[in-house]
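Narrative progress, year one. The postdoctoral researcher (J.K.) led the effort to move from monomer predictions toward full complexes, under supervision of the PI. The following entry was the first complex the group processed end to end, covering 1212 residues in total.
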Amino acid sequence: MHGRVKVKSTAQQEEEKRKGREKKLKVYLTVRDAIFSKRSNGELDEEALQFTQQLLSSNPDFATLWNYRREILLHLETVKEEDEIQKLYEAELFFIETCLKMNPKSYGSWHHRGWVSSRLPRPDWARELSLCDRCLSLDDRNFHCWDYRRLVVKASGVPVDQELQFTDRLIGSNFSNYSSWHYRSTLLPLLHPEPGSEPASPCRKQNNTHTSPTASPQTHSHRVCEEQLLKEYELVQNAFFTDPNDQSAWFYYRWLLGRAEREELISCVYVSREGERVAVAFSKPVNALTEGLMLVLDGQQQQRVEWRSAHPRFRHSPVWLCELPPGSVSDINNEHNLTVHWMEKHTHRDCALYTGRPESWCRDSATDQELFRSELSVEKTSVLQSELQSCTQLLELEPQNKWCLLTIVLLMRALDPLGHEKETLAHFQTLKEVDPMRSSYYSDLCSKFMIENTILKMEYAEVRVFSLSDKNLSTLCHLDQLLLVTHINLSSNQLVRFPPQFSMLQCLEVLEADDNAIGNLEGLYHLPKLEEVSLKNNQISKLSDLEPLASCPRLTRLDLRGNPVTKTANIEAELAQLLPSVTDLLL
Amino acid sequence: MAADNLPSEFDVVIVGTLTESVIAAACSRVGQRVLHLDRNYYAGNWASFTLNGLLSWIEEYKAQQEKSPDDQTDVEQEWREKIEEGEEVLTLNSVDSTISNLEVFTYAEEPEEEEEVKATSVGSVLIDSLAAEAKENSSSSTEAQNSSGPDDTTPDKDDDEEHQHQEPENEQTPETQEEPENEPQPEPVPEVKKKITYAKLIKEGRRFNIDLVSKLLYSRGLLVDLLIKSNVSRYAEFKNLSRILTCRNGKIEQVPCSRADVFGSKQLSMVEKRMLMKFLTFCLDFEQHPEEFQFSQKPFWDYLRSRSLTENLQHFVFSSIAMVDQETLTEEGLRATQHFLRCLGRYGNTPFLFPLYGLGEIPQCFCMCAVFGGIYCLRHSVQCLVVDKESGKAVIDTHGQRISCSHLVVEDGYIRDEQRTRSVNISLVTVPPLDSSSPAVRMVELSSSSMTCMPGTLVHLTCSSVGSAREDLEPVISKLFYVPSSPGEEPAPCEEEQKPVTLWIMFFNMRDSSGLDPSCYTLPTNVHVCTGPDASLGNDYSITLQAESVFRQLLPDEEFCPPAPNPEDIIYDGDGTQTEGAAFQEAGDALGTSAAGEEEEEEPQENDQSEESSEPAASSESAAQ
């Protein structure tokens, strides 16, 4: 064909490329060997710098070469004038830039850049910042660059508000960016601290918020003043109304709503004449074996008591137990005063055991609502209300959105757990349907909320009976709150086990858990008062599954009908041997 | 190249510009002997002019208007003799008949019927800035396209539609422009500095690149794909449009179209944000949800109203995203929306690219491909076609030379109207009509960073025509800009000072023949007609589709615009190719380095990576040691 430009054939090109590559490889290996031999000879000269530069510019991930370069540079620092050193390091920065163009996510290059910047006699931080900005504009999720940028900001003292504007900009161009949101969460408390948490807050307000009764047990050093919080809510709502399926905004929202941390203190002291036992409950798991826990009985420090956790598997536990010296409280006609000191937190709790009473306790009054609400720590109900409204609005548009559903559930919990119980359950149902992959997670979360609600109801009724049957419970939690419960009914749920924490129910006398799928009784351990256990229609299949029950001294009645274990040969004799105290056995 | 040097035989003779230049490039790329002629200047109706160039173009237009059609007859005698027996002659238009209703207004200072402006800006802030920098001028040119090619002398007979293009240059239309140089400068500046005089405009004339048609490139459009595929993109630079605006209730607003826009928008409520995103997400793959649009036989506008969208959102989608008109059917509207959305994010936050230095760059880029052996000849046209029974054999050019060819590709404007049998109107909407009878107007605002004007702003207004360009566009102009009643006049202090001041306006109508069916021409089969610019915003139809289909007719077995080879892959052996090859290399070197198109970056990068990928593999071994 005439007139056509002749072009090399593909095979020709391939061959040329192959040859080219071979040649390059040869050069590469030669240089590498030269570098290694120089290094082993301890040569720290500029020629070595040149050689390593040659290799690193094509392969910036060769960590050994960067190390060698640092050795050389450190050596040159000792023999050169400051101006020369400055020039040397500036050249180094320029070189690293070319490496970053080659691989913008090279660990070696970024690390070396950080190192060089810190050695530079007269660093130009503004330039470094603009380099970061350029990199982030190309890839706003390059975490190497984020890391380096934080280093630069710290070293150069960029004002916090400027950094906040920086995150504004990045979020504005693409809000699907965890790094930016997270960076915000670290900047805001510095720039707009919550009044009272730190002095000189730029948006201090008069203290007209209701003083929360939980203010003391909650510590949050990461809180942000309300005025700014409201702005942040708006910002993040813009994001999740724009794209409700983007997780990053929802996570930030959860952070804004807050997560309270409870202060460590003694929430309950219980003493019983029978068995002369003391049980102490803490607001969070502690390790009492550090000798931080001290018992004073009628003014006398009890040196010899031995504390143990509710279950031997726990080194940290919210409930600790001990036996008093024999005879110290057994006489029902004596009155006793008990004080438990928790030295680590300089806190204590008193408990009086009056005459004629077989047992006594002292605990935090029934403001338990605050206890469970504290999961979200936003103080003002009005704020929560308006957030709930926005989310509900979004839900109308996106009835299937799991993030929105879950957030609504959390807000409802924080506002009024009992009042919203029905809606909460309905939302959980929807959640399981729209997100079947996580249905077990939702079941567990729902169980937790149901247990909290039942505890609240029990507290209001001032009874020691905990009844939660037929509620699809899949797990048990908050068991430390059930320290004083005597009767518990968990029938017709989906429980599979009594976890070790169940042994915190130190006052339990009657346990009903029919029609579950329980196969593990680990938690029925050393329950001193347990008399009756009904486990009809469960999944107990082996005799050994029942072993924990042997540690409950008062157990007299046991119902095992409908369990596979009843089919075991010779079961009655075996059980009689295992559980001699049981007189009323139903199989 | 002088006419007498032209060889007298070619495979393909091409007359006309943009689409034609693509065909020329494609043909010469695969080794056809191509002669590419153009009547007077590069790019025809696609051209971009400097201000001075535009002024001469106007002069030429006026001169043409006066010229009587009889002039041709003398000349005809000259070439009559070149016709052989058994051949007939089809005469081609020697003058351009597509432009009509040209009017020019100057508002800049030294009157003398020149043009000039002083500008004020929209926001009061901007006023200062404009004033300070004295950078406004506006010109508006309108082009109407008369569908039935009228004689030049009777431009008004149209019931056709027109397109108006206006290029006022005013500062920024609304709110702040993206260009930092236009940022407000706080201190008020003395009056004197505010003015831009006509003399200054003329002096700076070379900084203008005023397009005759105002178009943008959809970043996933066929033309962009073609530019990339053929490597032609290496000859040009592009800029992503920075924002899309709409005019509603007299206010200019930014159209939220990308995710980031929606997130950042202050005009939308939270709920609207959700609605809009939901609708746009649906549009992206609307084919997957047939249940959502049973309306397909109904107009898109009705469909939008049936969706849960607020009026605000309907407006945004209808006029600024889909950019369709009231008659458009649902499916077409959805498709237009989808195309817009798919183009988002490829090169930036808006779906459009604009070639730096104006649209005229595009045909030029394709003409660069002439290095593959085509011959390009300006100010040289064809007078008539020599027809032998059923097919054309040769053309006779304006210098009387007979040139034989096996195919002729010719732009619509060269075809005399009597050869045309039918025409269709196209219309397009971007800025909603001011009242129900007037057409919607599309406005493209170009700042100096687009390399099309001096500091200040160049604005093109386009609409399908109802009357003359001036009648159609003047209301919009007076709504958005301040038009001084006499040159150099100050705007009234109150509301007028919110608006940018115009410096210079040009109106004209340009014929839109894009709706014509090629089969309506009674022409020999080896003559192919390309239409001129159409009214739509993108270039896809007019350039790529048409060029490719003509190319397929010419050379059904050849690849359309394969990538140009890398200079180092070209083999130089024979004498003939040697020189061409060398020329190519020079051109490639010169252009390739200076003009790195945005798109181009994609490709080289890929190459780099694939080349490098072998190396780290080799070196990771050594790193392990």
